[in-house]
From TrEMBL:
Pfam families: Metallophos. InterPro entries: Ap4A_hydrolase (IPR050126), Calcineurin-like_PHP (IPR004843), Metallo-depent_PP-like (IPR029052). It comes from Novosphingobium mangrovi (ex Hu et al. 2023). Residues 25-188 form the Calcineurin-like phosphoesterase domain. This is Metallophosphoesterase.
């Protein structure tokens, strides 16, 4: 009886820390939003970090929203495509990629796309802002299709809904609580905020996501948000993961180099 009481009132066993398969490493990068300058800085810092840590099978995960708002969406897509020829890269589809694809088929969607950063994307493909302002919406949709190469659209269509590696689930926006990983809707993976953000239960894995901007990485017991507002705050963040360890790497406006923040152990 005494033994049962001791078990009942004992401190709970700490939750098992999420981990990657043995010797594997992941770098996940938050929402880039056309900031090719920050993207290049962060890739350089990741390369230095890899060299310092030594060789390991490594996956680079881009969490979606590569485009819109910033000044060089076309350049970011070109750089991302180049990366896929150089190393193992998983790219997730964000809501802004979805909006671009939809806007090229639907003039009403194009109006929304332009208001939420699509104007900058079209300019990065060579359309002048003044020209865009003068066009009728249907004419602009056709002009956008002529300026954006089909290979870029096919590249975007290849982006994934989510990726699972070990105990980690990488997704752009988040997951619907209570729904299995296998049956999550693509729309939720690209757009959801609530009830995902306030959920404190288990998602079936530890979730790393972007989409919702915070000034610093938003680390919770069941998820980690790393959209630190590249186009708002001028900070692009990556998380490095190996075993049960996590650490952050950032690239910031106004600095010639990006840097690593203090390493942390996942709780």
């Amino acid at each position: 009886m005494l033994g049962k009481l001791r078990k009942l009132f004992a401190n709970p066993t700490p939750a098992q820390r999420p981990s990657l398969p043995h010797r594997e490493r992941v770098y996940a990068i938050g929402d880039i939003h056309g900031r090719l300058d920050l993207f290049e800085k962060l890739l350089e810092t990741i390369a230095h970090d890899e060299a310092a840590r030594g060789p390991a099978p490594t996956t680079l995960v881009l969490l979606g929203d590569l485009i819109d708002r910033g000044q060089d969406s076309a350049g970011v897509l070109a750089r991302a495509r180049q990366l896929t020829r150089e190393r193992h890269v998983e790219i997730l589809c964000g809501n802004h990629e979805e909006m671009l694809l939809t806007s090229l088929e639907d003039s009403k969607a194009l109006r929304s796309f332009l208001r939420f950063g699509g104007l900058e994307t079209l300019v990065s493909y060579g359309l002048a802002a003044e020209t865009i302002a003068e066009m009728e919406i249907d004419e602009l949709r056709e002009e956008a299709r002529r300026h954006i190469p089909e290979q870029d659209l096919e590249f975007i269509r290849s982006f994934r809904k989510l990726v699972r590696i070990g105990d980690y689930i990488f997704v752009h926006a988040g997951l619907r609580p209570g729904v299995s990983i296998e049956t999550q809707l693509g729309s939720d993976c690209r757009w959801i905020r609530e009830p995902f953000l306030s959920h404190t239960g288990n998602f079936g894995g530890f979730v790393v996501h972007g989409h919702t901007i915070t000034e610093e990485p938003d680390e919770r017991d069941n998820r980690l948000g790393i959209d630190t507002g590249a186009y708002v705050h001028g900070t692009l963040t990556a998380v490095g993961i190996e075993g049960t360890e996590r650490w952050y790497l950032t690239a910031e406006d106004g600095t010639s180099e990006s840097h690593q923040t203090g390493a942390t152990v996942a709780a």
